[in-house]
């Protein structure tokens, strides 16, 4: 191997490694260090609420009506959930039970 190609290859690999390193913004580092336990709990509650709202919206889009008649409550929410599960699995939705 040529003596010049080895150092150039090492330099090229070093530069490539440095370019691919993730760099976090300085603001993100200071925000996470300055977060109080109260702020962390609030953020967790907000995230949990958003997740539950998204799940409810999916159920409603698949036939569940929380304000509707609840005589068939367990069955109608289970039907909506099975439709969601089928969509996630890429299968056709099962027929609804009466």
TrEMBL record:
Q: Which residues form the signal peptide?
A: 1-28
Residue stretches of biased makeup (Basic and acidic residues): 41-58
Domain of life where this protein originates = Bacteria
Region entry Disordered, spans: 25-98
Q: Has the keyword Signal been applied to this entry?
A: yes
Q: Which UniProt keywords apply?
A: Signal
Which parts of the chain are coiled coil?
none
The protein depicted here goes by the name Membrane protein
What organism is the protein native to?
Caballeronia ptereochthonis
């Amino acid at each position: 191997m040529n003596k010049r190609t080895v150092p150039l290859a090492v330099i090229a690999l070093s530069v490539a490694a440095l370019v691919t390193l993730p760099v976090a913004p300085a603001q993100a580092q200071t925000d996470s260090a300055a977060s109080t336990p109260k702020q962390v709990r609030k953020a967790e509650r907000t995230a949990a609420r958003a997740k539950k709202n998204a799940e409810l919206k999916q159920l409603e889009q698949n036939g569940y009506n929380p304000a509707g008649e609840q005589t068939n409550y367990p069955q109608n929410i289970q039907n909506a959930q099975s439709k969601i599960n089928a969509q996630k699995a890429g299968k056709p939705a099962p027929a609804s039970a009466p």
